[in-house]
Design a protein that fits this description.
The protein has 235 residues and is an all-alpha fold. The protein folds into 2 domains: 151 residues, no CATH class; 82 residues, no CATH class. It has 10 helices and 2 strands. Helix 7 crosses helix 8, helix 7 crosses helix 9 and helix 8 packs antiparallel against helix 9. It is globular, with a radius of gyration of 22 Å. The protein starts with a helix and ends with a helix.
Length: 235
């Protein structure tokens, strides 16, 4: 993600700034549709975009239908944005220079109205898939992964799904980088990676994802026939 943003002129290691910039790109449709959903709005008035079924009640079982998947993602977006809003409020109120104060006492307000929440909405940016993934990291301030350790879930499936999502997003970013550098230059960059990174997932994504997008080969007759058969079966 940082390499991708570097090609757009954003050169920073600040996690919040990076997530905010990527959020803007998600909203601008820079990402493929499967990961272009997002939440916006002030606390108590969140809106979910590009997930038309997100308003349905989410179940606790593994999603088997589109409505279940969108409902669960929508719930995840709302809870994540709620947590982000509450954390931002705590940061704002803890700073004497930014705290919203009572007009009567001059002290930082303990209770906020909708108007007060509106004042900090700009600080939240957009809530995207990257915020959802961010909740799985482990740090001094983020221990949510412990809830998953205690939960009754299929850890192998959870891990495999997470790897697929991360690999998919990396493939998107790497394709953008390759387009910015030029495919031949990107190929040289991959070939010159440190030994422990060679003949691995980066090279595999170059072959299976980046090159087919930037240098697609004409389909053969058998491939065209197979694609037609798949289309008929899907229909």
């Amino acid at each position: 993600m940082q390499a991708f943003l570097y090609t757009t002129g954003v050169r920073s290691n600040n996690g919040q700034l990076i997530r905010r910039e990527v959020g803007r790109l998600v909203v601008k449709n820079a990402y493929p549709r499967p990961v272009s959903f997002y939440a916006a709005g002030a606390y108590g008035d969140f809106s979910i975009h590009r997930l038309p079924l997100a308003g349905y009640k989410a179940g606790l079982h593994i999603a088997s239908k589109e409505i279940d998947a969108q409902a669960q993602i929508g719930q995840f977006l709302r809870t994540t944005r709620k947590m982000k809003a509450q954390w931002t409020r705590a940061q704002v109120q803890a700073n004497p220079n930014t705290a919203i104060r009572s007009q009567k006492t001059g002290r930082p307000l303990d209770k906020w109205t909708a108007a007060h929440w509106q004042q900090i909405t700009w600080r939240l940016g957009y809530t995207t898939i990257f915020d959802l993934l961010g909740r799985l990291r482990i740090s001094q301030t983020s221990r949510e992964i412990e809830r998953y350790v205690e939960a009754d879930i299929d850890f192998r499936l959870f891990h495999a799904s997470l790897l697929n999502i991360v690999s998919y997003l990396n493939g998107v970013h790497e394709t953008y980088v390759a387009k910015a550098l030029g495919l031949e230059r990107y190929r040289r960059l991959v070939a010159e990676l440190p030994v422990h990174l060679q003949a691995g997932f980066v090279e595999d994504r170059l072959r299976t994802r980046v090159e087919p997008v930037l240098a697609p080969t004409p389909p053969t007759a058998p491939a065209i026939a197979a694609e037609g058969q798949q289309f008929r079966l899907a229909a």
